[in-house]
């Protein structure tokens, strides 16, 4: 084990009036909300990369953190890092964690050595998972950091890079399977382009589609029962990424016959970069039947890039969980904190408290969302707004043709008048639950 977190005791629920910063004010894991415990609804996961692999650097400066597993270039450091990670999971009571291969083990001198180091990490953490009860929500492959992937992975113009990406994903699916992971995620950080002057979008899109088909085929072959997920993002680091947003990915999945095989891991910050709200992306994914899991964070709205901050806006989070509850929950997915402390937050306590705050915000949002859904006022207003479409005349019109629809206007002397959308009333209604 490790003493990195010192004598920080496990975080307990103390209620909304608690003044103890090392306590939950809203997240009561065993409290039942809408038929399930908060633990079952929220399915919290800690992101291995931001919490343990990120060193606090930014484009203008190097690392600011000082961790006992730095430098992260030996297998001994891997073990120290894993010890610290599982100690934090225990303190938080987090039921899940998520990882990239590059987060958990150092790069080897060859692919085979990198793969073997990954499996050595798997062997090291499996007893810890059994001892603590912490599970793997999902694994994924980092195919954006190393220079070999500077022009993409599955979409790279070099077929040897495609092969390397396939081998990398295979090893990560194998590791996720061995850990009992409940999902596997693909994030195409460089599956896009910098300029069309050197890009054949049609060919790259075909290669990407075939790559995803190969992933699904392999997961089935080895008996991986988890969900395959894609994470949308419009740009950054690439100028344009093919996994732009929920609507774009759904069209892509339909093109390659994968709409019934793959779901989405939707991130709040990425939704904002795509010009949407988080609830927009969740709502659309729910309607299309591809809502799988979420990465919970937020961006700084004064910055035009992905700042990966912990959530602190209960109204926004409440609307997100409203969509999730209407979806029937997250299934095999969960709430992964793809969020990092600020580079000036250098103390071990900051890692704990950032997650405590994020978990509480999500719990408060969940409670508000469940209350809104139970009271049914929003659903009632929505039903009333579209009530005309439940009539026989409207149903007949939709099953007919354009001429028949047009004929109704004169036959029934139609003169439709505008009706209020009541947006402000509904916004006031939401604020009753989150205020």
Task: Describe the overall structure.
The chain is an alpha/beta fold and 435 residues long. It has two domains: 12-375, Divalent-metal-dependent TIM barrel enzymes (TIM Barrel), CATH 3.20.20.150; 388-434, no CATH class. The protein contains 16 helices and 14 strands. It has helices at residues 38-42, 48-53, 75-92, 101-104, 111-132, 159-178, 201-221, 246-255, 268-273, 278-288, 314-326, 348-375, 377-385, 392-399, 402-411, 423-434, and strands at residues 12-13, 23-24, 32-33, 36-37, 44-47, 96-100, 135-140, 183-186, 192-193, 227-230, 240-241, 262-267, 291-295, 335-337. It has an eight-stranded parallel barrel with strand order 5-6-7-8-10-12-13-14, surrounded by five helices. The protein has a two-stranded parallel sheet with strand order 1-2. α5 (111-132) packs parallel to α6 (159-178), α10 (278-288) runs parallel beside α11 and α11 crosses α12 (348-375). It is globular and about 80 Å long.
Summarize the topology.
Blueprint: E1 12-13, E2 23-24, E3 32-33, E4 36-37, H1 38-42, E5 44-47, H2 48-53, H3 75-92, E6 96-100, H4 101-104, H5 111-132, E7 135-140, H6 159-178, E8 183-186, E9 192-193, H7 201-221, E10 227-230, E11 240-241, H8 246-255, E12 262-267, H9 268-273, H10 278-288, E13 291-295, H11 314-326, E14 335-337, H12 348-375, H13 377-385, H14 392-399, H15 402-411, H16 423-434
Parallel strand pairs: 1-2, 5-6, 5-14, 6-7, 7-8, 8-10, 10-12, 12-13, 13-14
Antiparallel strand pairs: 3-4, 9-11
- Span between N and C termini? 42 Å
Rg is 24 Å
> Helix proportion of residues, in percent?
40-55%
Number of strands: 14
Treating each run of at least 4 consecutive H or I residues as one helix, how many helices? Answer: 16
What is the domain total for the residues?
2
Spans of at least 5 consecutive residues with low confidence: none
What is the CATH domain class of the largest domain?
Alpha Beta
Q: What structural class do the secondary elements suggest?
A: alpha/beta
β-strand amount:
5-15%
User: What best-fitting shape do the alpha-carbon axes yield?
Assistant: globular
Active site: 100, 103
Cofactor: Mg(2+)
GO cellular component, one term: cytoplasm
Family: Belongs to the xylose isomerase family.
């Amino acid at each position: 084990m490790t003493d990195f977190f010192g004598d920080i005791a496990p975080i307990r629920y103390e209620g909304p009036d608690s003044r103890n910063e090392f306590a939950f004010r809203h997240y009561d894991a065993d409290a039942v909300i809408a038929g399930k415990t908060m633990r079952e609804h929220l399915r919290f996961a800690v992101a291995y990369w931001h919490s343990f692999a990120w060193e606090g650097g930014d484009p203008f400066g190097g690392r600011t953190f000082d961790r006992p597993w730095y430098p992260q270039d030996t297998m001994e450091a891997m073990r120290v890092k894993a010890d610290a990670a599982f100690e934090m999971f225990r303190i938080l009571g987090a039921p899940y964690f998520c990882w990239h291969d590059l987060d958990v083990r150092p790069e080897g001198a060859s692919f085979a050595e990198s793969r073997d180091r990954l499996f050595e990490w798997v062997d090291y953490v499996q007893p810890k998972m059994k001892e603590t009860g912490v599970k793997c929500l999902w694994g994924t492959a980092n195919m954006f950091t190393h220079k070999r992937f500077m022009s993409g992975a599955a979409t790279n113009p070099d077929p040897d890079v495609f092969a390397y990406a396939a081998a990398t994903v295979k090893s990560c699916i194998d590791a996720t399977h061995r850990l009992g992971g409940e999902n596997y995620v693909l994030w195409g950080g460089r599956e896009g382009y910098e300029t069309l002057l050197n890009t054949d979008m049609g060919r790259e899109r075909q290669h990407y589609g075939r790559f995803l088909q190969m992933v699904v085929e392999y997961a089935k072959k080895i008996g991986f029962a988890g969900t395959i997920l894609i994470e949308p993002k419009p740009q950054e680091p690439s100028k344009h990424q093919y996994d732009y947003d929920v609507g774009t990915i759904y069209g892509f999945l339909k093109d390659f016959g994968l709409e019934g095989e793959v779901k989405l891991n939707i991130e709040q910050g990425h939704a904002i970069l795509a010009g949407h709200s988080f609830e927009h992306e969740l709502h659309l994914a729910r309607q299309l039947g591809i809502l799988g899991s979420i990465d919970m964070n937020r961006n700084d709205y004064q910055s035009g890039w992905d700042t990966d901050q912990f959530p602190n806006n209960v109204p926004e989070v409440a609307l997100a969980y409203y969509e999730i509850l209407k979806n029937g929950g997250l299934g095999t997915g969960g709430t992964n904190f793809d969020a990092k402390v600020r580079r000036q937050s250098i103390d071990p306590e900051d890692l704990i408290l950032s997650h405590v705050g994020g978990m509480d915000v999500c719990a408060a949002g969940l409670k508000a969302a469940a209350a809104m859904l139970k009271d049914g006022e929003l659903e009632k207003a929505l039903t009333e707004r579209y009530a005309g479409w439940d009539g026989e005349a409207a149903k007949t019109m939709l099953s007919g043709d354009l001429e028949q629809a047009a004929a109704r206007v004169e036959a029934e002397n139609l003169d439709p008048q505008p009706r209020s959308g009541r947006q402000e009333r509904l916004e006031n209604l939401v604020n009753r639950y989150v205020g």
